[in-house]
Amino acid sequence: MPATLTGRVAFYAILVINHLAPLNTACSNCPFQWKEFSGHCYWMVTEKMSFQAAENHCQDRSSKLGMQSHLMSVTSPEESAFLRNYTADVLGEGHQALWIGLNDRAQPGIFVWTDGSSTPYCDFNPGEPNGSNSEDCVVLWNVDHWNDIDCARNFEFVCKMPGRFHN
Ligand SMILES: [Ca+2]
Ligand SMILES: [Ca+2]
């Protein structure tokens, strides 16, 4: 190959490598297609499932990535606003219900998060929780506040996990 042609091939090879470089996600805090917010990674699942099937789905999906996600916990007004925006963007402003990880399945009236979060943050609708033993799992209701509801119902949901570089 003539020297000028070799040089041209090398030039275009470098162009191609430079073009591909931004696709390298080795230093991303979140895996491909997970949404990042404040050090955590979020994944909206638009397939409807029961509460426990949704929690299992979050755990299965992340374990394939060597990470650990659960149904989303909501621990601050900022994270709550993020969830509302994310839900409205993907499912629409008027979406009825979306599972979050809060539940009182083990002990009526004692609400816990599936990811083990302990937070004083609470955003139930006025009059909720109202379900006693018939409603043990919590949804974001009407892209607004929370409502306890029957765990066997099927809704979309968000998985959440700490980012790779979260401490
Ligand atoms: Ca209950
Ligand atoms: Ca309720």
TrEMBL record:
Keyword list, A-Z: Disulfide bond, Signal
Keyword Disulfide bond: yes
Protein name as catalogued: C-type lectin domain-containing protein
Organism: Patiria miniata
Lineage: Eukaryota, Metazoa, Echinodermata, Eleutherozoa, Asterozoa
Alphabetized SUPFAM superfamilies for the sequence: C-type lectin-like
InterPro entries reported for this sequence: C-type_lectin-like, C-type_lectin-like/link_sf, C-type_lectin/snaclec_domain, C-type_lectin_CS, CTDL_fold
Source organism, top-level taxon: Eukaryota
Pfam families, per the entry: Lectin_C (PF00059)
Residue ranges annotated for the C-type lectin domain, each copy included: 37-160
Keyword Disulfide bond: yes
Signal sequence, renumbered to the chain: 1-26
PROSITE patterns registered for this protein in UniProt: C_TYPE_LECTIN_1, C_TYPE_LECTIN_2
